[in-house]
């Protein structure tokens, strides 16, 4: 059975981190997620995460999340159950999905959970294929599609909201794409993913 991308319940996910590489010990300091269907936000999930390490200045310059803001934030393990309930088994859409999923699954492993098995759609891969632009960062692609974020980007929930709008704008011209086709073309199913 196939599911139309417009009608499907989708999770738009973004993380802010202490650096670029989960495999070398960088950690999540904020998670944002927006659950959507039919182009509309149904509900949102957002929390700061105490990464258990200082936020380097380079990372702070990107997301402006300070050590002081994080000192009383919960650890990932303390919010993992709520996060898993929120996303359930819905397809996950993220801008540069390999980055976000590497951090989520690294945190899941540290907290004693298995890696997520949700199908994943990389909205960046979609943008590279569907949006004519010299640059494909989220801000540039969104601007090319006349989508703007009044509060700016580089905070998890704001990035999720803009990513969702970019996704729905791109699928308008795709002749009712199916989730399975988008996952096959622009994403992956983790259990079948090559390592």
List the defining traits of the structure above.
Nucleotidyltransferase, domain 5; 195 residues; 8 helices; alpha/beta; 6-stranded mixed sheet
Mean pLDDT: 93
Number of helices: 8
What sort of overall outline do the alpha carbons produce when their principal axes are compared? globular
**CATH architecture call:** 2-Layer Sandwich
Order of helices and strands: EEEHHHEHEHHHHE
Spatial separation of the terminal alpha carbons: 28 Å
Number of separate structural domains: 1
How many beta strands in the DSSP annotation? Answer: 6
What's the layout of helices and strands?
Elements: E1 10-17, E2 28-37, E3 40-48, H1 57-63, H2 67-70, H3 76-87, E4 92-94, H4 97-110, E5 120-122, H5 123-130, H6 138-144, H7 156-171, H8 179-186, E6 187-188
Parallel strand pairs: 1-4, 4-5
Antiparallel strand pairs: 1-2, 2-3, 5-6
Helix pairs in contact: 5-7
Report on this structure.
This protein has eight helices and six strands; from the N terminus they run E-E-E-H-H-H-E-H-E-H-H-H-H-E. By secondary structure, the chain is α/β, with parallel strands linked by helices. The protein has one domain: Nucleotidyltransferase, domain 5. It has a six-stranded mixed β-sheet, with helices on both faces.
């Amino acid at each position: 059975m196939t599911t139309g991308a417009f009608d499907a319940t989708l999770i738009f996910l973004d993380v802010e981190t202490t650096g670029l590489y989960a495999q070398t010990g960088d950690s999540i300091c904020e998670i944002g997620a927006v659950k959507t269907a039919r182009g509309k936000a149904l509900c949102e999930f957002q929390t700061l995460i105490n990464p258990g390490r200082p936020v380097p200045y380079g990372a702070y310059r990107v997301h402006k999340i300070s050590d002081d803001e994080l000192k009383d934030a919960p650890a990932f393990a303390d919010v993992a159950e709520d996060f898993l309930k929120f996303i359930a088994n819905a397809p996950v859409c993220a801008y540069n999905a390999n980055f976000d999923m590497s951090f989520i699954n690294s945190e899941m492993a540290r907290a004693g959970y298995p890696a997520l098995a949700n199908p994943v759609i990389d909205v960046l891969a979609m943008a590279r294929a569907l949006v004519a632009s010299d640059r494909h960062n989220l801000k540039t692609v969104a601007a090319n599609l006349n989508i703007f974020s009044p509060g700016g980007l580089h905070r998890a929930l704001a990035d999720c909201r803009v990513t969702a709008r970019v996704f729905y704008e791109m699928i308008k011209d795709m002749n009712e794409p199916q989730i399975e086709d988008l996952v096959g073309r622009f994403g992956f199913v983790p259990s079948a993913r090559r390592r």
